[in-house]
Amino acid sequence: MLRLAASSSLKFSRSFSMTVPASSSPRHLVSMLELSNTELKSLVDRALHFKTQIKSGEKAPKEVSEALLGKLVALIFSKRSTRTRISTEGAAVYFGGHPMFLGKDDIQLGVNESFYDTTRVVSSMTSCIFARVNSHSEIQELCKHSSVPIINALCDKFHPLQAIADLVTIKETYGDLKGLKLAWIGDSNNVINDLAVAALRFGINVSVATPTGADFDTSIAEQASKIGQENGAAFTLTHNPLEAAHEADILVTDTFVSMGQEAEALQKLQQFAGFQITNELAKKAGAKPDWKFMHCLPRHHEEVDDEVFYSDRSIVFQEAENRLYAALAAIEGFVINKGKLE
Fold first, then answer.
1. pLDDT at res. 113
2. Fewest CB within 10 A of the end CB: N or C in the chain?
């Protein structure tokens, strides 16, 4: 699915609360639900801009490469990562900032110090905080008390940077997005929660197939349906992978066993029988002849076979690279431009 301001007033009681003046509260990137269609499209376009600029080999203008010169970018990671760590550190360096990785074994958070205390301390010394945490409530706590922007780099409910990277990848591949169909075949998790909303904002039809017992979040489904209606896109839920993949342009999945669920692995794999993405499944379902495959990685064989994963249909490594450009767009929009995205 950690901050403060110098002028903040503190109220102490048995349970104390901190009041931060509204005018000093930074804007945070929590999920795709908090963005307007225009704001999301701006983030995607800016990510594509950064990719073009970097691929050209030309240096960024000085006002860009020194936008965070002399400033720290905190990376609070409770969970290990490959793409998220590389992309966020790379994005900080691009703007002249200094990334500081703060893993669960590096700081006092959760050991000798509360979320509140850690947030106030870290945000007082940094320009922003990328937070890759366990629960959504931890992201909410960070946002509540931080004096600098919090960028959600993953929680158990949302994964906004992945959604931005995915839309960049789809736009690179198809150009015009309206009317495409994206089929999710897998678990109901943070990735599809944000990806569904993001795709619907672009007019992409979304069909989600999850096994019985892994139902899509009801609250997010209601909001996604409304966003779909506003943008002329259909949002459907099913437990049948063949139904979801019918006439799909893009087939997407993710891990069936998330970090922290290793003890449930055997049970989960039994639950997801018949959900592996293969050429046979796509053919049987009647997916579009030129369908593409996406996965946020790391990938396991039970989710997609090698024939699809390493084929020309697969755009997973392009998708992974685009995490860098998504992070660049997020820093520019929420940190440098202070949340003004349009």
1. 85
2. C
